[in-house]
């Protein structure tokens, strides 16, 4: 017997799993949290180095932002920039390197203290001003011409940090100013997760191995594993069963906070590549940076190099067999959970081939809001 | 930016990390818990399939118990057995296969419902009686001649489930009865954890990679990574810097709950194999089963095949260089944490070579007790 304990992963990008949380999420009763407590817990979660280490070590993320900022140097040179949720300040430094006249690096969490040191170490105190606070409360001495932010959470909207970017846009961005990135898109595809199949099959292997028939555990295992938690996992190309369908597009220049709160919706239609058992949907996103030549895309697609966002996996109650060209249609809506506005819920209505329409609502087990402050 | 969310690992035995918990443990203020709440949270943590899957999939664990029970069939045949914390009931079935007349499978958690099904599926309802409850409260119709239990937690004593085994021994074991396993031993060795070195070095690599000097982050990273959390990690043989020293031995026939509560203590002395930087201690355990021919040992040593317990890693404040034959001495005491009696604290006083004596107290960030019921 053992009670799971926090363990450090040996693989920064591959293995930051959280099975304790996973398990405890079955234990813990959800409850509403007041906004201030949600925020405190949210910002506190960025006080450890691991999360910043993982984000900066994500080459796809960091390199794409760097390239996007450098390629926009004409729009940034001599301009005033606002970095929303600056963290360690790395994006602010990229902007200063791209010629920004001034960068306001707004960061609510104590990592801002490290950002100050890093700015100093790079001799950019004259160009970059780290401001500790939320973008909703800080007071900037001037309006800005550029907003840069790395605000994307799991399944794009988990954390609802985009709200803060939109707030900053409406309050601080000059007319005609630019936002990096300027567009976000959500995609979905049916997948077959072999790990789940192996885990369910496991209970049938024990009779041969130990002489104990434990196959009756597979029902219980199915209920536990194929639950309505949003699972963040790396989906391999071979497991994607159709061309992904685009669910929704958010134009960061025009989308409103109200639209995000009401819910981000989209219909989809996919056709299966071949015969397989669908046991989940995979949801992922891309964000696009405007560039003088051609737009630059940061993609978290399973068909592209892995990022720390991996993909959001939504399990069906039970696997459904499909053959080539089986049509999978549905509608997805994403909205903030009732327990914590920072946590996303994903509701999926789907029809697979001739099967009757199914519905399921998924959410990310809310660790921060369940901790005892 | 992203707030870590629970993620399912692709590797059941290798990657059950818990970075959310790790991070949140910095956020959450500890507080005392009443015993009943501790117990509820503790038993609730066994309601998910993952934990049972991982334990049964641990071949070293499951095979060693099976062999130990089979080799003790002479002591078990025709006898009455008590399985303390039976879980899915696999050990009870091994005992029935070894010829037990009757097995009382006592399990407090709802997994007991699965144990009932498994017993039925193996046609052993006549031999095995699954009893839902804690061993402290259940009433058995008779005394037993054998107690079997898989009670070991991280660093052996995390969870303090041994207390329940000792309670069962004093209340239900007949004089001259046997306990499987009957002995537990704790070991310690200085190690060099290269993952930590790589993580600290990471901040020096960013200047070349992105043109941003972030080396000043390494102090912050050191404070975050080399903290006083007990980290459960796989220590590779190459990283062990001396012969492990035995800290303590517990004879399950004679040790008392009072002795466990007062603290399990031990002195150690190690001599370094060669030149290296010590940045942690590794603590692990073995348990021994009496067998007619020779005792059978279940070892969680880094020199033996990996188990799901891996090893408990205790980080120093800062690395200390050693050369061949550098003497590392100290004293370790393990005792229940003040916040939750089920959670272990490990206090280490140590002296490395000519360096002055250091002290540090480690604990496993207590997830269950921080969750909101």
Automatic annotation (TrEMBL), chains A, B:
Say yes or no: keyword rRNA-binding present. no
User: Pfam families from the entry?
Assistant: PrmA (PF06325), PRMT_C (PF22528)
- The organism named in the record is Sparus aurata
Keyword list (alphabetical) reads: Chromatin regulator, DNA damage, DNA repair, Methylation, Methyltransferase, Nucleus, Repressor, S-adenosyl-L-methionine, Transcription, Transcription regulation, Transferase
A Gene Ontology molecular function term for this protein is: histone H3R2 methyltransferase activity
Q: Report the locations given in the UniProt record.
A: Nucleus
Q: Per its UniProt record, what Gene3D superfamilies does this chain match? A: Hnrnp arginine n-methyltransferase1, Vaccinia Virus protein VP39
This chain belongs to the protein called Protein arginine N-methyltransferase 6
């Amino acid at each position: 017997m053992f009670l799971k304990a926090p363990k450090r992963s040996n693989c920064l990008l591959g293995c930051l799993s959280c099975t304790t949380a996973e398990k405890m999420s079955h234990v813990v009763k959800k409850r509403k949290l007041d906004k201030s407590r949600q925020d405190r817990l949210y910002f506190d979660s960025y006080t450890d180095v691991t999360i910043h280490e993982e984000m900066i070590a994500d080459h796809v993320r960091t390199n794409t932002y760097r390239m996007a900022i450098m390629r926009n140097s004409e729009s940034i040179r001599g301009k005033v920039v606002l970095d929303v949720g600056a963290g360690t300040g790395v994006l602010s430094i990229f902007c200063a390197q791209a010629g920004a006249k001034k960068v306001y690096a707004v960061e609510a969490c104590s990592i801002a203290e490290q950002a100050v040191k890093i700015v100093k170490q790079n001799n950019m105190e004259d160009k970059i001003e780290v401001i500790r606070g939320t973008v909703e409360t800080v007071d900037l001495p001037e309006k800005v011409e550029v907003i840069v932010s790395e605000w994307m959470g799991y399944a794009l909207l988990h954390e609802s940090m985009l709200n803060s970017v939109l707030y900053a846009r409406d309050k601080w961005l000059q007319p005609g100013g630019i936002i990096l990135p300027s567009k976000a898109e959500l995609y979905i595809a049916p997948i077959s997760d072999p790990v789940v199949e192996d885990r369910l099959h496991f209970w049938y292997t024990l009779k041969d191995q130990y002489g104990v028939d434990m196959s009756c555990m597979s029902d219980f295992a199915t209920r536990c594993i194929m639950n309505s938690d949003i699972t963040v996992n790396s989906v391999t190309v071979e497991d994607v069963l159709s061309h992904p369908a685009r669910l929704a597009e958010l134009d960061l220049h025009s989308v409103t906070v109200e639209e995000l709160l009401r819910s981000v919706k989209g219909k989809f239609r996919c056709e299966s590549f071949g015969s397989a058992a669908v046991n989940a949907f995979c949801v992922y996103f891309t964000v696009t940076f405007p560039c003088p030549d051609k737009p630059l895309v940061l993609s978290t697609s399973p068909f592209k190099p892995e990022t720390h966002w991996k993909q959001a996996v939504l399990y069906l109650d039970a696997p459904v067999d499909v053959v080539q060209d089986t049509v999978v249609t549905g509608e997805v809506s994403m909205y903030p959970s009732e327990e914590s506005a920072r946590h996303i819920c994903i509701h999926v209505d789907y029809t697979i081939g001739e099967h009757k329409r199914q519905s399921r609502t998924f959410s990310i087990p809310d660790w921060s809001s369940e901790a005892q402050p």
